[in-house]
Design a protein that fits this description.
It is a single chain. The chain has a single domain, classed as Vaccinia Virus protein VP39 (Rossmann fold, 3-Layer(aba) Sandwich). It contains 6 helices and 9 strands. Strands 5-4-3-6-7-8-9 form a 7-stranded mixed β-sheet. The protein has a two-stranded antiparallel sheet with strand order 1-2. β1 and β2 form a beta hairpin. Bound molecules: S-adenosyl-L-homocysteine. The site of S-adenosyl-L-homocysteine has 24 residues, from β2, α4 and β4. The site of S-adenosyl-L-homocysteine (SAH) has 24 residues, from β2, α4 and β4.
């Protein structure tokens, strides 16, 4: 990758422009996305495409999400800085790193141990001490740490998983892609009130599927 500072500044400007033009408008979210270097989370020969607004392969057949979608999902969570957040689908760890700058505590789970180990190493290098990454099947949530103020799924479920609804606090928000894995899915926001759950449909998205059980690599 080029280290020419003018080139880096130019690339960052284009990155932020792409985020804004796709609806990521909240200043705090943009500022965190400007600071957290996506290049650290994209390894191998795709590393030089880290600042393009596209999903990229990360190993175990998974992808790091498109940055504008990371921004839109983060925005939809309406974080104030005090929340305990659960992310299902650690993947590269990029989304968790963004959340860690906008919330109090982040628990992130992935069914692939290798991804959890690699992401945890980056969290340590960056001194992101408020993130805990765990190998687990996130369709059951994380009962030990429940309830959560916010829950984010970064893999598509065919239906909102019941255990996750139950682990959301009253007043809490969950954001998730819902739909078949081979079709366009909808990003949904679920808000829990004292009397039930309200659903809003935000935007069409495409995610890898939520798969039950732990991955074969551990
Ligand atoms: N948030 C990630 C992108 C995630 S890709 C990032 O910022 O890079 C979706 C991830 O969900 C994959 O890593 C996949 O292994 C994980 N996943 C799928 N089903 C799961 C399940 N039931 N429990 C936990 N993780 C799951």
């Amino acid at each position: 990758m080029s280290v020419d500072p003018a080139h880096i500044a130019e690339r960052k400007m284009q990155f932020l422009f792409a985020l804004r033009s796709r609806g990521v408008t909240e200043a705090r979210v943009l500022s965190v996305m400007e600071r957290v270097d996506r290049g650290l989370f994209v390894r191998g020969h795709f590393a030089d495409r880290a600042y393009e607004d596209m999903p990229l392969p990360i190993g175990c057949g998974q992808t790091i999400s498109q940055p504008s979608v990371v921004g839109l999902m983060t925005q939809a969570l309406k974080l104030s800085g005090r929340e305990k957040v659960l992310e299902v689908g650690t993947g590269s760890g990029y989304q968790a790193a963004i959340l860690s700058q906008l919330a109090r505590r982040v628990y992130t789970v992935d069914r692939h141990k290798r991804l959890v180990v690699e992401a945890s190493a980056i969290f340590r290098d960056l001194d992101l001490t408020n993130i805990t990454a765990v190998t687990a099947d996130g369709s059951h949530g994380l009962p030990d740490q429940a309830p959560f103020d916010r829950i984010l799924l970064t893999a598509a479920a065919e239906d909102t998983p019941g255990p996750l609804l139950a682990q959301l606090k009253i007043g809490g928000i969950m954001v998730l892609p819902v739909g078949q894995s081979d079709a366009v899915q909808s990003l949904i926001r679920v808000s829990r009130s004292a009397t039930g759950y309200d659903y809003d449909e935000l935007t069409p998205v495409r995610f890898v599927p939520l798969v039950e059980g732990i991955g074969r690599d551990g």
